[in-house]
Structures are given as C-alpha cells and as structure tokens.
C-alpha cells in the first residue's frame, strides 16, 4: 500500500481543484508486491497532486514544487504508466487507462512547476494559526562577536555593503586588521566571481578558517594584492609561521582549469604556504552518483547481491567519505597544528561551503545545538551564497545541469557524525531530514534564491514564512533524547577516525517511504515516547497525591468535628434539633490548604507536616465562599482521572494515522495524552489543558479528545454552581464514609 502525504502542507488552506484536472480508475502498483494494487482517482490542485483511494481511505499528496520528474513510460496492456519522482525520494507509478489522459496529465504537471521565483510556493503558503509571519533576524555580526571578532587581528569591512565588490557575499565581511581597501579590491578582481579570502571561523587558539574561490592565475598570472592579503591572514596567528591552502577539487580538475585562465595558487608566489588537494568530485559527478543510488532503491525485488552491488557502483558513500575526510583534515590543522587554513574549490559556494561548515561543526560544540546549527547554516550556506535555487532546481527555468545534491551531502555527513557521536548533538535525525526537504519544497523563504542579495530583491522576509520559526514552534519534535551537553564529546573538538566500515547507508532518508523494509521502531523515537509518557504519568501522579492529601484533610477534620460534637452533647439543651451537630460540622469544614493549581486556585504551601497548623474548628466559619467552592467533588475527581491515559500505544503498532496519513521515518508520531493513541501533526492539538495534570501545562491531545474535554469542562462548570456548598460538602463526607465502610 503506497500513500504518502507532504507533512507540512498548510491544512488550513482552501483546496482548489483545477478545471478538468481529474483522472479516474487510476491504478497504483506496489513495487514490492506486483499483485497488490490500488485503484483510485487523481486530482490536481494549484499546489498538489492528490491520489485518492476510496476503498482503503488512503490519500497521496505530492507538492508540485517537490516533483523532480514526471516521466511517461511505454504503454502496457494495463494502460499508460506515468512515473512521478520527488526530490525527497518518493517514487510512485500511476497506470492510467487512457493514453490521452496520461499525456495531458504529464503536460499539466510540467506546466504547474513555478516558472519564476515570484510564483514559488512560499509566496502562496498559508501556515497554521500557530505560525506567524515573523522572521527572527540573523545578524552575521552577532555570530562573529560570539567568536571574539573584531579584535586586534581581525576587523569588520563594509566595502561590500552594496554588493559592489562581490554580489554573492554578505554586505559585511571580516578581514585581517592590516589589510587595505586596495588589497581587498585587487584580490577580489583576481578571484573567480570576486570571492576574495575572508574569515569564516576563528578558533579559541587563534587559528582561523578563511574561504574564497579559485584564483584567476592560469599558468603564470599573479596578483600582488592577493599575495599580500594571504600574508596578512598568516600573520593573524602567532602560533604558526605557515598556513594551509586547501583545494577541495581533484588535482586533475584544478590543472584543467588553468587552461581556462583559472586554476590554483602557485607556491612560488605565495611564501610560507602549504598547499594540499582534498579531492571531492564536482557537481556533475555527484548528481550522477545520487541518481544511481535512487535507481538502486527503486529496484523491484532485487537479490541482496544486486542491491549491494548497485549501491557500491554508485560510489555515493565514497563521496561522503571524501567530504568528511577533508573536513577532518581542516579541523586537525586548526586544533592540533594550530595553523590557519584557507579553503576554496572552483567558485567557493559548493565544496567550500561543505568543508568550512563541517570543520566548524567538528571544532565548535556550539554548532551542535539546534540554535548553533541554525547559525552555521545561515553563515556558511546562506550568507556566503550557496546557490540553493540552482542546485535544488526551484523553478522551471532552472538548468538541469546545475542541479546537484551538494546540501544533501552536507546533511548526510552531519547524520553520519550523529551516528558516531550519538550524545554530542542536540538535534535528531528528523531535524536533518526536515532541513533537506524544505531546502527543496520552497514552502519557506529561507532557501529561495542563490545568495543574500537575491533574497533581499525577492523580499522573502516580508512576504514569506521562516523555516526557523517553524522549527522554534515545534522544537521538541527535533530534539535528540540522547543528547548530553556535559558529556565529553558534546563539549570538545570531534576528530573521528573514519574507516570504510564506519559509514552507513542512510535508510531513513532514501527508503523512508518504503515502510515494509524499515524497522518499525528506532531507539531515539522509543526514548522520546518513554520520556513523554513518563512526564505525563509523573504530572498526573502529583495531582493524585494532591487530591489524596485533600481528602485526608477533609476526613480528619470531619472526624474532629464529630468528636467535638460528641463531647459537647451532654452540655446541650435537650430540645435542640438532632440535625444541629451535622449542620455545625458542615459549616465548620476546614479550608483546603493545597498545592498550586491554576484551575482550582489553591495555595501551594501544603505538605503533610503542615496538618498540625490547621486552624481551630471555632475559626472555620470565617472562611470565604470562594475557598469552600474549591473543595473537590467526586465528579471532579472522576473527571480528572478520566482525562489522562495510563497506557499509550507503542509507536510500532500503527502504520497510518486516522486521517489516512502514513507514518514514515521523517514524521513525528504523537500520543494523545488523553486516549493514548498515535496521531500525526495534523490531528494533534498542542494547546489543551488537561484537568488530570498537576502542572496545568499544555498537553498534546487529539482533536476528538480535545472537543470532548472542552464540552465536558463546559458541562462541568455549568452544573457545579447549581449545588450549594453544604450539599457539596455533605456529598463528599458521605462518599468518604461509604469508602471507609467498604475498607472495613
């Protein structure tokens, strides 16, 4: 059964079905079982392709901006196949009865992709009510201040404030204190795309990482200003008399670029320089490698040898290792050798971004937190101009040859590190998958455009929602339950030793929609489930302890009143009414001195040892009516007990939510704290206060239970005032007496 939903679809949006965009009797075949198929209807909206299975009540939603390709395959006896592949690695094959319908659907899908940035999904997306169109400003200067810059060695330079020097750099850059504007301009003209060497990371020991693009050196050209700038960078570090220049291209590629007037630094012109190649293949090789991975993942019933050989022939993990090896070398040079490192590739926005961000991640524990990782993405990838729109193919006019999984490789290397150091990272796998998906979805404006200047021109901060705001509002979904901030690995530099056996194939990324071959449950999700369940039970237990103390206090004071009435009977007039003692006892019931609760408005000073300080019975008549109204009734206690589920359904059990959304590795399963069942993000309300919780905090509750709780609260509040205080006290006392008799 295949039915998959793009989980961040704005479910408050109004669905608009396009005219004549409906195809019936469409068959979908399960690639793991050719005999199993689904027959349903395809609908097209202005934002989604929707496949509805009326019998199984399953729906497939595919966001148009996530569609990688829609290919019409040769006609078969069953019909005309149309295979749709997405950028988040979902593949589905529709068999359409009529070839004409298939041709029209294929043409329509290709036309629905945005033809320009202004028509991207982020400008149309209507977020859920809890998400506001507010951008938390990222200030590059604040991040550099955290690293201690500017200082005596480094200064801020605003020569690029209008993007005149380099239109793919941020408006402010950080350069050595001794540099002059003439040096910066000269170096900018000598570097490809004007991307001159600038500071990107400063380690506490004084060693730095700078980044740039390849020099326009050809076979013999040189630039004195560029050579002076590199010498200025070298002098900022007093611990070493030499520095590294890391070229992340294979040597043969760098040599070939010399013929085009580019190339790499001539060591004869740059003194005290150690030059090193860290070979990482170009975007075209990486694109082909990923395609081979996807072909292997889509094989129908392959043997083990066929599957493993297909993965091996893709060389994907070899490329991942090459990126990681380069980052580790840079981190070792900074931390152990205490040398400055200058990193570049061809234009300095692909492999350079990978290596600089990953080496910073290894060196600085701050970047392993959720907030710090966001700063790292903003600095290395967004501010310094990774070409997200070109590499992700955001628009119909994007050149297919420019698309490449550069950012995916960075995300995967981070995932590999989380597998090696599971307690060192605050974020979980779901966060990394979400980050990759939204770099392609165009649902948020953060990853639109090729550089900071593009995003300013497109007005994304004024017209779109921020991905980081979405993360902030759902931050608990993306936290790693294994994270230990005080652990050795979490607070130190990470310098792993990578062997061939170290790296793993990321099943939850590339096979996330193949539920039949994935484990039903993984350790982080199980831990999150246990943590949430324990928190709910602890909170509920505290309320039960509170109610037990209340009932004990009422019972003890009722017994004291009875004893007092019994000892005073001989002194009373014989004509007194027989009901007088009980009425007196009811009127003199003590106030409740209880733990704090927003709903009950009760004091938080109570403890079992405080019972000796209860006011004498003679003073009880002075208690206010508001305090008497807070005496818990049997109905209220029963209501509180029934509002919390003691048993929760395991994450392993359900494959689909009640709304038909299939659960996959990228989606968080939520347990309703009232009924204990599993639900998706669409079917859970996070702003519900359950009467059975001591803390009165907001809890995740399914929509059905939320409606039930709200109606029950309304009925409870309306019915409670109808009873007098004396009646409520008498009912409580009577119930307590019955319970005592049953115990005896």
TrEMBL record:
It comes from Adineta steineri. Keywords: Hydrolase, Lipid metabolism, Membrane, Metal-binding, Zinc, Zinc-finger. This is phosphatidylinositol-3,5-bisphosphate 3-phosphatase. It is found in: Membrane. Residues 134-510 form the Myotubularin phosphatase domain. GO terms for molecular function: phosphatidylinositol-3,5-bisphosphate 3-phosphatase activity; phosphatidylinositol-3-phosphate phosphatase activity; zinc ion binding. Substrate binds at residues 282-283, 345-351. Coiled coil: none annotated. Its EC number is 3.1.3.95. The active site is at residue 345. Belongs to the protein-tyrosine phosphatase family. Non-receptor class myotubularin subfamily. PROSITE patterns: PPASE_MYOTUBULARIN (PS51339), TYR_PHOSPHATASE_1 (PS00383), ZF_FYVE (PS50178). Residues 556-626, 732-744 have a biased composition (Polar residues). The keyword NAD does not apply. GO terms for biological process: phosphatidylinositol dephosphorylation.
């Amino acid at each position: 059964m295949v039915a998959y939903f793009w989980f961040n679809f704005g479910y408050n949006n109004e669905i608009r079905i396009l005219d004549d965009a409906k195809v019936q009797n469409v068959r979908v075949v399960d690639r793991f079982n050719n005999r199993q198929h689904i027959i349903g209807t395809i609908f097209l909206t202005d934002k989604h392709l929707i496949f509805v299975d009326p019998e199984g009540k399953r729906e497939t939603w595919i966001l148009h901006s996530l569609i990688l390709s829609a290919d019409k395959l040769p006609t078969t006896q069953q019909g005309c196949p149309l295979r749709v592949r997405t950028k988040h690695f979902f593949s589905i094959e529709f068999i359409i009865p009529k070839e004409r319908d298939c041709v029209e659907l294929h043409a329509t899908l290709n036309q629905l992709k945005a033809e320009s940035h202004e028509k991207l999904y982020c400008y149309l997306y209507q977020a859920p009510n809890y998400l506001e169109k507010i951008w938390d400003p990222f200030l590059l200067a604040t991040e550099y201040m955290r690293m201690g810059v500017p200082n005596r060695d480094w200064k801020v330079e605003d020569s690029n404030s209008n993007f005149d020097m380099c239109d793919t750099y941020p408006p402010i850059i950080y350069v050595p204190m001794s540099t002059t504007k003439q040096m910066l301009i000269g170096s900018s003209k000598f570097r490809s795309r004007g991307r001159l060497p600038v500071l990107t990371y400063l380690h506490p020991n004084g060693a730095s990482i700078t980044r740039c693009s390849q020099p326009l050196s050809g076979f013999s050209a040189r630039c004195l200003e560029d050579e002076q700038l590199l010498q200025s960078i070298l002098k900022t570090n007093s611990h070493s008399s030499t520095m590294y220049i890391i070229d992340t291209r294979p040597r043969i590629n760098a040599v070939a670029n010399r013929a085009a007037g580019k190339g790499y630094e001539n060591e004869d012109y740059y003194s005290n320089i150690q030059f090193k190649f860290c070979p990482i293949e170009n975007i075209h090789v990486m694109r082909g490698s990923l395609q081979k991975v996807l072909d292997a993942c889509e094989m129908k019933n392959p043997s083990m040898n066929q599957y493993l050989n297909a993965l091996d022939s893709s060389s994907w993990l070899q490329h991942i290792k090459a990126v990681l090896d380069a980052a580790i070398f840079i981190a070792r040079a900074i931390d152990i050798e205490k040398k400055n490192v200058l990193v570049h590739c061809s234009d300095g926005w692909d492999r350079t971004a990978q290596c600089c961000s990953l080496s910073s991640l290894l060196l600085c524990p701050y970047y392993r937190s959720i907030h710090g990782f966001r700063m790292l993405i903003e600095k290395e990838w967004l501010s310094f101009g990774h070409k997200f729109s070109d590499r992700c193919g955001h628009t119909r006019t994007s050149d297919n040859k420019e698309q490449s999984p550069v950012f995916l490789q960075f995300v995967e290397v981070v995932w590999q590190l989380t597998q090696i150091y599971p307690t060192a990272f605050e974020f979980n796998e779901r966060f990394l998958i979400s980050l990759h998906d939204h770099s392609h979805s165009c649902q948020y404006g953060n990853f639109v455009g090729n550089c900071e200047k593009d995003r300013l021109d497109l007005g994304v901060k004024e017209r779109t929602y921020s991905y980081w705001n979405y993360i902030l509002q759902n931050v608990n979904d993306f936290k790693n339950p294994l994270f230990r901030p005080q652990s050795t690995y979490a607070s130190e530099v990470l310098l792993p030793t990578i062997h061939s056996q170290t790296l793993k194939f990321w099943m939850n990324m590339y096979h996330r929609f193949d539920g039949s071959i994935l484990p039903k449950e993984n350790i982080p999700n199980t831990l999150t489930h246990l943590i949430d369940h324990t928190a709910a039970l602890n909170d509920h237990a505290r309320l039960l302890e509170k109610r037990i103390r209340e009932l004990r206090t009422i019972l003890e004071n009722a017994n004291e009143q009875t004893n007092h009435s019994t000892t005073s009977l001989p002194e009373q007039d014989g004509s007194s009414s027989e009901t007088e003692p009980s009425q007196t006892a009811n009127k003199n019931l003590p106030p409740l001195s209880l733990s704090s609760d927003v709903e009950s408005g009760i004091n938080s000073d109570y403890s079992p040892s405080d019972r000796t300080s209860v006011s004498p019975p003679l003073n009880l008549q002075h208690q206010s009516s508001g305090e008497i109204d807070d005496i818990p009734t049997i109905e209220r206690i029963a209501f509180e007990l029934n509002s919390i589920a003691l048993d929760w359904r395991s994450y392993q059990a359900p494959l689909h939510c009640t709304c038909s959304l299939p659960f996959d590795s990228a989606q968080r399963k939520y347990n309703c704290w009232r009924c204990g069942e599993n639900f998706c993000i669409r079917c859970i309300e996070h702003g519900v206060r359950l009467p059975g919780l001591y803390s009165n905090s907001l809890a995740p509750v399914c929509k059905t239970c939320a409606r039930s709780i709200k109606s029950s609260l309304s009925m409870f509040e309306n019915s409670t005032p109808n009873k007098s205080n004396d009646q409520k006290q008498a009912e409580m006392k009577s119930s307590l007496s019955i319970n005592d008799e049953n115990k005896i």
